[in-house]
Design goal:
By secondary structure, the protein is an alpha/beta fold. It has 20 helices and 16 strands. Strands 1, 2, 4, 5, 6, 8, 9, 10, 11, 12, 13 and 14 form a twelve-stranded mixed sheet that branches. A two-stranded parallel sheet has the order 3-7.
């Protein structure tokens, strides 16, 4: 076994927990106390509570604005109060569209009217609640009444439109039909509109999410032919949260945009449909047969079109302000009450939401209950712990975003870190977030035992990494978007984590009427063993952040990770240059024309603009300077610091993430302030690291790319100065 001994704050230990003499951020004496506390905490976790609470909270549909959603929030508040927390409900008033009219019908060459209804299944009474179930739709689609020829666009991502362009096929004035997957759903209507389409349909192909993958519900976990994935298509890469109050809280009396001026509502109508409703439309398409990579699992030959299938799409929504109820439960710290460790999970769902989000919510609650028991026995946290149950996450991270925007100034001064969870299941630990927390999370993962394998969750995840050809070391993935960490890290510049187990719980219930307690018990985490593992993992992280002598941020691993991002960006630029040179040479030599199939449409490509050499030296120099500063900072013996110097260091550490932000934000989407992590403009949930530079290069905006390189270098230089100032010797 290999050990790397740094000083007190930055000790990274691998191996058995029993061998630990120090954990990151704790003195030797307090390491022992902390590990004993965590052992006591773990012993209090009870899977029966998770089971009981899931049954209660998923008994009825509870999307934002529903009566049952309000009752759930009030019940959660009551539980927190009984566990010793000061719990309150903070309500925001947010725009939420409810579907009034949904029509999809094929008008040529034959006729077909889409059913737009998922069928109840035997053995699951929750799927037979009729009008109580939220109709399938995409929230924040615009109203519309359009009719046009249909074009199949595969997943509807940028690469697919590049393929259509090569084939000489346009979607202008057409309605597109795209498969779910490949990217976040909101990107599909966004790109379709940019290419001139007037409407968009999205369906779940059985190859991605249905009988091709396994037995369908109720026999198996996967989506049956009538299942439809609901979901928001709000343009969250521009900004999440209430569409009418960008950048500030949607309080009762807040000034609101006119709905027609809200930039995050789609430009064209969009609706999700089942593969049962999609098949007749796709079968009626003619034109070129799709490329092999576009073929799905339906028993048809997939054609692109356009036409002769012609579709009429009509949508109308009831646009109303609805109350979003956030539960905020606080346990004041004994030593540092103005340093906050925050935990969050949302409580709203599209329908019943047993998996998404209740499986994560009940884990958070059991964690908080056990912490409350410890506090009643005299083990209150040194720093303030705040547990949050967010509302209106599903339509666009609305509840958490409005709360962060409303309290932003205070949060930026007091929050140490935010730890997020969402849906949870059986399998492997997935952990993403600020890489300054990677060493600490890795250490915690080494102490939590996997319920199935009897080894640490770190060891099991590392084994999976190696099987998949990756690094054997445990690491955090970078955060894009898709859950409530987004406003904390990417808008407010607060260090954040996102945690959850999965990988052995595949199924097709996501955002459908089938996300129910019976489905979860059969296919996701039957004994709630991984719910307890999640509570154990997140709870230990929260307790370490709350009790550490010095906050457990570590920057050597941060620097290694960010260095890989920089090299990726440089390599992307070089690869693009080589590809353009190759392409232009092939155009000159008529290679494309000679290779084209004369029986198929062919659009002769044109030469592309040559790619200039970008000057990455400012970034490379800044990274080199940081490496030196971080190495010096990591050698400081914090155990020799006075209490005053230690307090000063903690105050600086908790604000360090904010230095990695820029107040003007990213180009064309200033809400996103972080310069290291952001959701991609055309990926949605998917992350773009070093986003300003990376996306400018991908979009071939070379002037902006150089500007963003220089801007990011300024951010890195400021961070280097901040690291130097954090040293108690300076």
């Amino acid at each position: 076994m290999t050990r790397y001994f740094f000083t007190l704050l930055f000790t990274v230990i691998t191996g058995a927990v029993a061998a630990q003499t120090n954990i990151i951020g704790f003195t030797s004496e307090n390491t022992k106390k902390q590990l004993e506390l965590e052992k006591s905490f773990e012993s209090k976790l009870n899977p029966k509570n998770l089971d009981e609470w899931m049954q209660k909270m998923s008994a009825q549909p509870h999307w934002v604005g529903t009566e049952f959603g309000r009752k759930n929030a009030e019940w959660i508040q009551k539980q927190f109060k009984s566990w010793g927390y000061d719990a309150k409900i903070e309500t925001y008033h947010v725009l939420f569209p409810y579907p009034k009219i949904r029509v999809v019908e094929m008008t040529a060459p034959t006729t077909y009217t889409a059913k737009l209804t998922a069928v109840p299944v035997d053995g699951d009474e929750f799927t037979a609640q009729g009008d109580a179930l939220l109709p399938s739709y995409n929230a924040f689609s615009t109203d519309g009444d359009v009719e046009a020829e249909l074009v199949f666009v595969n997943y509807g991502i940028p690469a697919d439109y590049e393929e259509l362009d090569k084939l000489g096929i346009s979607v202008e004035g057409k309605i597109v039909i795209a498969k779910y997957a490949g990217s976040w759903r909101g990107i599909k209507p966004k790109l379709a509109a940019e290419h001139g389409a007037i409407g968009c349909l999205i369906y779940s192909d059985p190859k991605d999410d249905g009988y091709v993958r396994g037995d369908v519900y109720p026999k198996g976990a996967f989506k049956n032919k009538t299942g439809v994935q609901r979901g928001s298509v709000m343009d969250m890469p521009t900004y999440p949260g209430d569409v009418l109050t960008p950048g500030y809280g949607a309080t009762k009396d807040a000034k609101r945009l006119n709905r027609e001026d809200a930039p995050t509502i789609t430009k064209i109508p969009v609706l999700p449909i089942s593969n049962e409703d999609a098949q007749p439309l796709l079968q009626a398409l003619d034109g070129q047969v799709v490329p092999n990579s576009w073929k799905g699992g339906l028993p048809i030959t997939y054609h692109i079109g356009p036409g002769p299938a012609k579709v009429h799409l009509k949508l109308e929504f009831d646009w109303q302000l609805k109350p979003a109820h956030n539960v905020i439960a606080t346990m004041k710290g004994t030593d540092f009450p103005d340093q906050w460790v925050m935990r969050g999970n949302h409580h709203d769902a599209w329908v019943h939401g047993a998996n998404d989000p209740i499986s994560g919510m009940v884990a958070l609650m059991e964690e908080a209950r056990a912490v409350g028991e410890l506090a009643k026995k005299g083990h209150k946290p040194k720093r303030t712990l705040i547990y949050c149950a967010w509302d209106a996450e599903e339509p666009g991270l609305i509840g958490s975003t409005e709360w962060v925007e409303d309290h932003k100034a205070e949060l930026q001064q007091k929050v140490v870190a935010y730890i997020n969870t969402d849906g949870n299941g059986r399998g492997f630990l997935g952990a993403g977030g600020s890489h300054s927390l990677q060493a600490m999370v890795s250490e915690v993962a080494g102490t939590v035992i996997d319920p199935q394998k009897g080894v640490s969750v770190k060891e099991r995840k590392s084994a999976l990494n190696r099987v998949n050809g990756g690094e054997k070391d445990f690491g955090l993935y970078a955060l894009g978007s898709g859950s409530d960490y987004t406003p904390f890290i990417q808008h407010a510049g607060i260090a954040a984590l996102n945690l959850g187990f999965g990988g052995e719980n595949a199924g097709g219930e996501y955002h459908t009427i089938y996300d129910t307690y019976p489905h979860y018990k059969r296919f996701k985490d039957p004994e709630f063993a991984y719910g307890v593992a999640l509570a154990n993992t997140a709870g230990r992280i929260s307790l370490r952040l709350a009790n550490a002598d010095v906050l457990p941020f570590e920057y050597e691993q941060w620097h290694q990770t960010v260095s890989t991002y920089l090299q990726e960006v440089i390599n992307t630029s070089e690869t693009m240059r080589r590809e353009v040179e190759k392409h232009n040479k092939m155009v000159d030599e008529n290679i494309y024309e000679l290779a084209a199939d004369p029986r198929k449409p062919f659009k002769k490509p044109v030469k592309e603009e040559e790619i200039p050499y970008l000057n990455f030296a400012p970034l490379q120099n800044a990274m080199a300077a940081m490496e030196t500063s971080i190495a010096a900072f990591s050698k400081i013996d914090i155990s020799k610091l006075s209490a005053a110097k230690r307090d000063d260091l903690n105050n600086k550490l908790m604000l360090a993430e904010h230095v990695l932000t820029s107040e003007e934000g990213l180009p064309r989407r200033g809400w996103y302030k972080h310069q290291i992590y952001a959701p991609g403009f055309y990926t949605g949930y998917g992350v773009k690291t070093l986003p300003g530079v990376r996306e400018a290069i991908e979009q071939k905006n070379w002037t902006e790319a150089q500007e963003q390189i220089n801007k990011l270098a300024d951010t890195f230089n400021a961070f280097n100065t901040y690291i130097q100032k954090m040293s108690p010797l300076n």
